[in-house]
Amino acid sequence: MDQPLLPIDPEEENTATQVYEHDTIIVRPPPVQENAIREQENRGPIGLEVAGRPQRTQPIREMFRPAAWQAFMAVAEEPAILQEALSGKDGPAWKAPWETALESLRKNGTWVIEKAPKNRNIVGCRWLCRRREDGRFKVRLVAKGLSQEPGIDFQETFAPVAKFTTLRVLLALAPENDWELHSMDVKTAFLNGVLEEEIYMESPEGIVEKVQQVQACRLVKAIYGLQQSPRA
C-alpha cells in the first residue's frame, strides 16, 4: 500500500503553491527514493558528457520502448508505394480499391494528358495506401502540394465550412417542425471541384495511357493534396 503523505507545512521551502482568490493550493512533489537520487547524481545532464559518468540516455529510451512495437506495426502494415502493395501478400486486396480510385479519376475527367509548357512546374503525386481500423483497404491518389508554386499553381486556399452551431440549430428545428433529415457521403468528393488554375502533374503510376517524357497531366478537377482542393 502507498504510504500516506505527511502533513504539508505552508512555510516549508521548495513547496509549489498556487493562490486563487480565497483558496491556496499547495503541491508536494512525489517522494523520490534515495537510490534514485544517487543514480541521478551519478549520471549528469542528458546529452552532456561528464567526466567519469555515463550519459543519461537510458531514461529516454525506456520512455519510448513500451509503445515502439505499436508504431512499428503501423508503419510495417501499410506499403510505402503502389508497386509494393500490389506485389505483396495482400496484393488482391489492394488492387481492387486502386482500380476503383483510378476508374473514378477517369470517369470524372480529372486530367488531360498533353505536352507541358517549357519551364513549367510539374507537381508530383503518389498513391497513398491506408488500411482502416475496420479492416478496409483504401487507395487514393494524392498530389504533392508542397511542390506547388504560390501565385502560379494556386491563389486562394481558404475554404468556408459549416459551423457546428448551424448543424445544432438544424437538428433542433427538425423535430420541432416535423422535418425529415437525410445525410449522404460523397465518394472522392474533391474530384468534383473544378480548378481555375492551370496545373500540370506528373503521370501517376499505373495509368494505361502511353505518356511521353515531355507530357504531363493537366489537371481539370481537384485532387487530394493540392493547396486549393478544399476551396475548389
Q: State the total count of DSSP E strands.
A: 8
Query: Which structural class matches the secondary elements?
Result: alpha+beta
Low-confidence stretches: 18-22, 46-50, 71-76
Mean pLDDT: 75
Helical content (DSSP H or I, runs of 4+): 25-40%
Q: Alpha-carbon distance between the termini?
A: 61 Å
Write the SSE topology.
Blueprint: E1 16-20, E2 23-27, H1 34-43, H2 58-76, H3 82-87, H4 91-107, E3 111-115, E4 122-123, E5 125-131, E6 137-143, H5 164-176, E7 194-201, E8 215-221
Parallel strand pairs: 4-7
Antiparallel strand pairs: 1-2, 3-8, 5-6, 7-8
Overview features:
2 domains, alpha+beta, two-stranded antiparallel sheet, 232 residues, globular, single chain, 8 strands, 4-stranded mixed β-sheet
Detailed description of the structure:
With 232 residues, the chain is α+β, with helices and mostly antiparallel strands. The chain folds into two domains: 16-76, no CATH class; 82-221, no CATH class. It is built from five helices and eight strands. It has helices at residues 34-43, 58-76, 82-87, 91-107, 164-176, and strands spanning 16-20, 23-27, 111-115, 122-123, 125-131, 137-143, 194-201, 215-221. A four-stranded mixed sheet has the order 3-8-7-4, with no helix packed on it. A two-stranded antiparallel sheet has the order 1-2. Strand 1 (16-20) and strand 2 (23-27) form a beta hairpin. Residues 18-22, 46-50 and 71-76 have low confidence and may be disordered.
